[in-house]
C-alpha cells in the first residue's frame, strides 16, 4: 500500500471518528426561508432537532414565533413536514446517496419579527444517542462502547467502498474522455489535411490557368 493511499485511509478514519454533527444557531426573519444541505450516503441513519429560542424565558413563546419545516431527498421526496410549529425533530434512513435538504421558513408576520433558531443534525454513527443508550453498570457500559466501535468500523467500511466506487467511476470517465479527445484530434488532423489539399489543388489550378507553371 503506497503512502498516498495510506494517508487517504488515515484521513478517512479521522473524519468519521471525529464529531460529524451539524449544530448551529442562526437568526431568521419572518417570511424568509433558510435551507441547509447535508451529504448522506445510502442506508445511513440521520436525525435532526429544531426549535425556536424563546426571547423571554419567563414568558410563553409569542404567537408570531412559528416555523414551517421540510426535509427532502436529492430527488425531492419529502421525509418530514411540519407547519406552524415552534419545535420538533425528524429521523430518516437514506435510500440514495446525495445532498438531503432541510428548509426552515419563518411564518409571515406583520410587523416583521426576528426569530432565533436552534438546529442540530446528526448522521451515521453520530445520529445514535449513545449517552442515553449506555447503562450504569460497567458491563453494559462496555457493551455500549463495543457497539459504538462496531458501528464506527461499519461506517468506515461503507465509506471506503463508496470512495472506491467513486474512484472507479472517475477512472472510467477519464478513459472515456481521453478516447473522445483522441478521436477529436484525428478528426481535426483530417480536416486540416483536407483543407490544405484543397488549397494546394486550388493554387495549382490557378497557376496552370495563368500559365505560370
TrEMBL record:
Source species of the chain: Brassica cretica (Mustard)
Primary location recorded for the protein, binned into one broad class: membrane
Keyword Transmembrane: yes
Signal peptide: 1-23
InterPro entries: Emp24-like, GOLD_dom
Localisation per UniProt entry: Membrane
Name of the protein this chain belongs to: GOLD domain-containing protein
Record carries keyword Transmembrane helix: yes
